[in-house]
Amino acid sequence: MLEFVWNSFTLPSWSSVRTAMVRIPFLPTFVVLPLTSNTTVAPPGLGLWPNPSSLSTGSQYVKVAQDFNIAFMGEGRIPEDLNDAMRNTKALIWHDHLERLVVGRGSVDAEALLNSSISTLKVLELRLAPGSNNLKSIYENTVGVEAFERDESYRLEVPSDASTATLIANNTLFYLSEKTVYTFKAPIVISDKPAFPHRGTLLDTSRNFFTKDDILLTIDAMSWSKLNVLHWHVVDSQSFPLQVPAFPELAEKGAYDSRSIYTVEDVRDIVKYAGSHGVDVLVEIDTPGHTTAIAESHPEHIACANAVPWVKYAHEPPAGQLRITSQETIKFTAELFSSVMGMFPSKYFSPGGDEVNFKCYAHDPQSQVELKSSKKTLEKALSSYVEQTHSVITGAGKTPVVWEEMVLRHKIKLVNDTVALVWKSSSHAAKVAKKGYRIIHVPSDYFYLDCGAGFWAGDDPNGKSWCANTLDSKLWPRAAAAAEVFWTGAVGPDGQPRSVTEAFPRLQDFRYRLVERGIRPVALQPYWCALRPHACDL
Q1: Helix, strand, coil percentages, rounded to 5, for the chain
Q2: pTM
Q3: Could you write out the DSSP letters of every residue in 474-501?
Q4: Are 89 and 32 in contact (CB under 8 A)?
């Protein structure tokens, strides 16, 4: 699923799909050009994704020199991940091998590129914005920083003459013909910033396990499409693949097998890699529901574990959830949260909170005894559980991120800066905002990428499923379409509302660029149609 955040309680208006521009991996968006452009003309044929806020182009060819270099024009030591960004940017420019998506591909420009008067771009300069004297690493500007404090704006210029380019975070300007890398729309001036500060992808690794390499490649693709938060739904009822330092037995007994575990070292690598790509990792330990896998190592903490029929006691198989009535379980949960938070330096932590099934507790003798002893209702027991476990999160200096039921269904006292994930319906966003909470909008009626592929039940071919295991083709390029919605906003650089007709050729271009970079996105159309924009339109 895809998610974005609203930074106020005033709800924005909706419109259709938008345009955008792709960011070079690792180049930090706090490095910008001291250049401006008042024109906002979006040209045909230039495959920028997602679309920038402001774009001005010409019609001249510019070639990239064989000894093309990227230079940081600032004082002090260049952070290691910025150095990596510069090196990787050069590698992508030369190794993308993407020819224009037109009939004849790169050969259509071969003759024009023989013109001796065409300028050659030799240097790309990176500069800090005026007044930005403190050069931090990309990781430092991403991890442990509030979403609203991150400045991802930038400016870019590619000249049409032989002068130096000043460029940040874009390599979709260039194409290949024979052995020449070039652009055909110079001069190019871009001024850009995101419409929403939180632009996320949620990845579930409990229902089906994905390898560390799968996750790293997903982070690559996220950075290219300007998505900046990986919401890692790492555990659930089906399996517990996360190695937790304080409770190693959870993964030892709760994972599908010994190969389907994320070690402490794996997590450290993923968090570091993500941070160096401008992606923050928001981890979720969904509780008190969705916790059956914990029963494999700690059955004392799970009510109605594997009870049947599962549909009576849970929203999905297998049934089982934490005993919110037990003080020992609350203590266990607090220690679990504390240990996991120590692995993830993000300012945000999600304790989940969706789909708590009270029938499970009615079926559980121990829960009933504890309720009677405490003289609490289930609602009061849940409120006490949330208050005690969330205090560990806020005590660690982090912001709780909960599913919408914690706000709309239950009468629970949440800390004021709690962020609510609106997922059941986009119509619920206004209700959550009215209660004064910030929103991450992940409505299943718009942004669940695994919907439409069958339900849990083996005899029901309809509905939605959270069991997708074909990661690349499920995510891409559909996630990129959402990324443009999150980055560009309601209108494109021409000031017009987003248009599928305008956006689709650019998305095709981005999809083929992903293929060049090792991603396996689903094909949007037959190749014949991709080479002939709009020829297959109705």
Answers
A1: 30, 20, 50
A2: 0.89
A3: HHTTHHHHHHHHHHH-SB-TTSSBP-HH
A4: no
Place of tokens 């270099």: 69
SS3 track for 398-444 = CEEEEECHHHHCCCCCCCCCCEEEECCCHHHHHHHHHCCCEEEECCC
Is there a contact between 224 and 50 (Cβ–Cβ < 8 Å)?
no
The structure tokens 């049934």 sit at 319
The residues annotated with a catalytic role in the active site are 355
Nearest in space to 379 (alpha carbons), one of 417, 409, 421:
409
Handedness of CA 524, 530, 536, 538 (dihedral sign): positive
Contact 321, 357 (CB under 8 A): yes
The predicted-structure confidence for 412-452, as pLDDT tens digits, reads as follows: 989 989 999 999 999 999 999 999 999 999 998 888 887 55
Cβ-in-10-Å burial (0-12, 13-18, 19+) of 45 comes to: middle
Residues (pLDDT < 50) of the chain are 6-44, 169-172, 454, 456-461
